[in-house]
Amino acid sequence: MTAVSSTWQICAQTHDRLGESILWHPKEQALYWIDYYGPFVHRQRHGVVETWKLDVGEIIGSLVFVHGQGLLIAMDHGLYFFDPGTGSTRFFADPKNGRRDVVYNDAKVDRAGRYWVGTLNLDEAEASSDFYSVFSNGQAETADGDFAICNGPAFSPDNRSLYFSDSARGRILRYDLDDRGVISNRRTFFTFRTDDGLPDGLAVDSAGNVWCALYGGAKVVCVDPAGRLRQSLPLPASYATSLCFGGPGLRTLFVTTGWNTREEAAANPSDKGGAVFMRDVKIPGLAEPIAFRR
Length: 294
Known about the structure:
Elements: E1 9-13, E2 19-25, E3 30-35, E4 40-45, E5 48-53, E6 60-66, E7 70-75, E8 78-83, E9 88-93, E10 102-109, E11 115-121, E12 129-134, E13 140-147, E14 150-155, E15 161-166, E16 171-177, E17 183-191, E18 198-204, E19 210-215, E20 219-223, E21 229-234, E22 239-246, E23 252-258, H1 263-266, E24 275-280
Antiparallel strand pairs: 1-24, 2-3, 3-4, 4-5, 6-7, 7-8, 8-9, 10-11, 11-12, 12-13, 14-15, 15-16, 16-17, 18-19, 19-20, 20-21, 22-23, 23-24
């Protein structure tokens, strides 16, 4: 990994069609992320990228770290444990109970170790996707619904708020989160303009600011806990998808991107979509929790 600065640098050039779900593993000092359409899992350690192609589905929506299990990956129609050491997968659960009109998408772990995952309607228009809380035994509860695209989510430093990207409606939602893992009091936290792009992946820093990748907006933004825009950072890639904090002191912001397959986009050599970008930030992030840790 090269030295980081206050301007964007390319951290990994994997030419992902749709890079997503980036997380920093503090113990391994490694970055993990996916290519949605690979379906690939990537890991970068000491500047070297390793890649695994998955054979349990056609697309991968997200990954999280799991206690004693390696990774939990959300494939199109099922959740699987994945062991990078052996490359093996093992079925875990299917909260959507075999529905084929939706696929699994973004997922995160809250600060109590609970796993949350949303779905994506295949036409990205009909509001028929759900957001689930999944337990260590594979049982799940529907936390909320009526979405076309479930993205995000992220959690406040005290684990009392859950943030969620309602992408199709161009807004970030905020929920109250109690000690039982139940969300309530849904309200709009921040609304984007049409030309901002669609809110995608989220991350929360140690001061409680919410960072959002804007898909189609060529930027990431930082919104303070009161819902006020704090910072906007243009990217040399139109399709920003996911972001996390990592590196020494968790003071580096990493962002995944994708590339557009349309002909007009291919004619734009300045768009660096498909790379992972990084830059310094003033406020450090928070370590990503491990799912199902007791």
